Amino acid sequence: MYDLIGKKWWFFIFSGIIIIPGIISLILWGLTFSIDFTGGSLLELKFTEKNNQPDKSKLEKIIRENKLELVSLTQTGGNTYLVRLKPIDKDQNENFQKELNKQFGQVEELRFEIVGPTIGKETTGNAVKAVIFASVAIIIYITLSFRHIPKPYSSWKFGISAVAALIHDVLLVLGVFSIFGHFLKVEIDSLFITALLTVMGFSVHDSIVVFDRIRENLTKSTGTFSEIVNNSLLQTLARSLSTSLTVLLTLTALLLFTGESIRWFIIALLIGIASGTYSSIFNAAPLLVLWEEKKKS
Amino acid sequence: MKSLRIKLWLIAVITVLAALIDLPQSFPVEIPWGKQTLKRIIQAPRINLNLGSFSLQKSFDTRLGLDLSGGTHLVLQAEMDKISSPDRQKAFDSAKSTIERRINLFGLTEPVVQQAKVGDNYRIIVEIPGVTDINQAIDLIGTTAQLTFREEATSQASEATPSSFLEVWPKDSGLTGNNLIRSQVSYDTNTGSPQVALEFDSIGAKLFEQITSRNTGKTIAIFLDDQLLSAPKVNEPITGGQAVIQGQFTTAQAKELSVLLNAGALPVPLKIVQQRQIGATLGRETIDKSIFAGIIGMITVAAFMVFNYGLLGLVADIALIIYSLIVWAIFKTLPVTLTLAGIAGFILSIGMAVDANILIFERMKEELSWGKDYFTGLKLGFDRAFPSIRDSNISSLITCAILYWFGTGIIRGFAITLSVGIIVSLFSAVTVSRTLLQLLYKD
């Protein structure tokens, strides 16, 4: 029988290696939030006249002259630009459009968004609440549904270990996106929060499958806790890998064939779900063992 | 084995029903029939039921969210500072119906106007699909409602063929919504029929007294945003600032009128706090790409299952197809508004649907390797895998519920599609595949 649990420290170290760069990035640079959270205006402009294309400095100058506060300006395609501004109203936007038309002829407004600062604050608050509530609800649910495990093992430890694995996944995704945000200007938007919560769901999904087998084996087999957990891990390994593979296959299809608009959403899911599988096998269950061993010594 | 037959029929009926609902609006089919070709247009059924007083009309359409259809999303905040707290809900309702009226005035298609109260914030969410230049409409939506009372023209000045209602009642009486305290539905004490009661403030009461004595026997017209709401006839001069409008109202009609009058009585300034305009090209491309991605994803998963589990995998694939048919049918029936995130949730739930089957099959493999015969292995596989399928899916449903609770817009769409997917997957992966497998191995 292969001894997975014996190598638990190696698994913890591996987790550390992949998570720590992200944490450093989070501390140094934080996250790049979209206007969903910060409030502001966003314009996507397409300059259709080939012979009269703007460049960044020209655009910046027009924005300054119109007394608009620029947050960032990025070229998203050959002739499209994404302009992020402090909140502006419709009239300001109309004047700005007129000015652009004067200088560059036809300009198509692909997107125009305004998010008021209060809405942004609420979205942030709700996202944080959702993550905290989901974690607490999961601990309670696991504690309840594992309440029949034989003594001396306590079901709330299962809940907390599952949530520890979940935090592992959330930290990894946040960290990676902090790095993406700094170097690639990837923004955290509402869709990202959706991805994060899905990752949490999946992570717990995986942990529960492993825990369920531990619960079953605790009542049936003999041996030390560590041996039972090790057996349970090996027995569920094929399932965990197969399931992750199917989910990753669908996600890869989405990534390859859908457009720009949900690309980062899919990438967040890919990273998170891969991490979820890893953490439920190599972190959540070994953590339980570590906890039981600590109690004895 | 009788129960097995019943189950099988049930699954067949559900599948056919779902498939019918899934049919697109019009789907031309050509079947070669001897020398001729049979041409027919198949379409999703419409329910048109009339049983006595009970009637049910339903058509099954795919409803697309703004990010797919393109359109404008607006969030307006109603500023309630000047409205006393007991009147706020009334003012809020009035603001909503005023906005609906204004949008309909512009002939914009299928607008969705919703109220959202967040803490002390009264908000109205407006979604207008379709891409037209709606800046004008947005201007109008944001303005405060104006209620005016107008008088008829004196007989010599009245025009022969008035071109608008404003010309029928050309004289501004000077009385406006500002003088109206509130309006509500009341009932005639004699006949019990519904009527609309108006209550004026002291200045309004005096003005109204003057106006009604000038116009006894004539009509007074009430306009909201220059649109005629009602033109009641004055029977006698009204003193004291309490008036009622009588007519052949149903309670609903009286309510509607009073809500609109309140829009003038309790005017709330509206501020745009969020605005999004999404182009339609983004949407069309995205749908096509997502459908394509979904099909590719499904084929890959299906191939993986057959490769890994052989005949069992094939059964899982059939269950997966039934699953997709049912989920899509539910989306069209409820209906669930499909957004980008929603479609992603659906495709993701395909992966989760397969998970239940993988859990069962892996368990079966184990039981078989411990020397059980095929039928026992099958039974044990289902029975022993069930607790983990149940627990893991319930925890996912909990996450969905929390997402729905805290989320707005796209997040909610995602939560709904994912939970529908999870619930249906429990049926397809457990009941459907089990019934099919029992059919294969019955002895």
Automatic annotation (TrEMBL), chain B:
The chain crosses the membrane at residues 290-307, 314-331, 337-360, 394-414, 420-441. Residues 93-152 form the Protein translocase subunit SecDF P1 domain. Keywords: Cell membrane, Membrane, Protein transport, Translocation, Transmembrane, Transmembrane helix, Transport. One of its GO terms (cellular component) is plasma membrane. It is a multi-pass membrane protein. One of its GO terms (biological process) is protein targeting. Residues 271-442 form the Protein export membrane protein SecD/SecF C-terminal domain. One of its GO terms (molecular function) is protein-transporting ATPase activity. The keyword Protein transport applies. It is found in: Cell membrane. Residues 171-268 form the SecDF P1 head subdomain domain. It holds the Pfam family SecD_1st. Its main location: membrane. Forms a complex with SecF. Part of the essential Sec protein translocation apparatus which comprises SecA, SecYEG and auxiliary proteins SecDF. Other proteins may also be involved. Part of the Sec protein translocase complex. Interacts with the SecYEG preprotein conducting channel. SecDF uses the proton motive force (PMF) to complete protein translocation after the ATP-dependent function of SecA. Belongs to the SecD/SecF family. SecD subfamily. This is Protein translocase subunit SecD. The lineage of its organism: Bacteria, Candidatus Gottesmaniibacteriota.
